[in-house]
Prior knowledge:
Elements: E1 11-18, E2 24-33, E3 41-47, H1 49-72, H2 81-96, E4 100-105, E5 114-120, H3 124-129, E6 132-133, H4 138-146, E7 150-153, H5 164-169, E8 174-182, E9 185-194, H6 205-240, E10 246-249, E11 255-259
Antiparallel strand pairs: 1-2, 2-3, 4-5, 4-9, 5-6, 7-8, 8-9, 10-11
Helix pairs in contact: 1-2, 1-6, 2-6
Amino acid sequence: SRKESAGDRMRVARYQGVRREGTKIDIEAVIIPAGHAKGRYFAYHRDVTREKQSEREIRRRLEELQLLRDIVSSGAGAGDLQKMLRSGLGRIMDVLDWEMGALYSSSPPGKGSLVINANRGFPAAAVKTLGILERDAGLGGFVAKTLEPHMFLIRKYPSHLPYRSLWRECGFAAICLIPLVSRERLVGTIVLGSKSEKAEDQYSADLLSAIGHQLGVSIEGSMMYTEIKEQEERYASLISSIPDVIYSGSPDGIMQFISP
């Protein structure tokens, strides 16, 4: 038997092909030496387009999962609503790479108008015009109805939505709408803007939805915590202002001291 040379070993090559209709495909070629026939080879070609797409999708999902973890890790503690809104918006803008943004919320959660509670880099004209979004009309109504994230290039901005001229006047080239959802209700929304165009599939709808749900649940939880805390403080203040001695009684006859 003769010693196998480097040229006699199996090799794998990858290249891009084009179908007759013009579709590009990924091809993998396995090249195998033809026995002892020096200089002759068998080549097996196969379409690996779907495999490559699956690999890219897996990598994308892993990258987006890490992005979501980075955003979630920036949340503020319960009760510190304003800090949560500011830090949440800032972190989302930094991680997703948008230079302008505004965060809206409603009080109580899921009811009433959506009001700007935090913004960064948002043009003054946009803040003035879009300071309040109604959930039953216009841009706010669109977000409340779909409860889904949307990304638009301004040059392709839908004709049925308002503010096309405002976006252009403020220098927007792309906007992204992220609904903040808790218990299937809209508790707020984020409007992101960029002066440069973004790839429409830069981030998946699943990632943007996960961000909106995570922040939406956090906002509602923080609002409920703040409301309960304020009620407790009012109750304590009321009880402490009563000069009489107050007890409460239970059905089994146990008396509990309340004040003063």
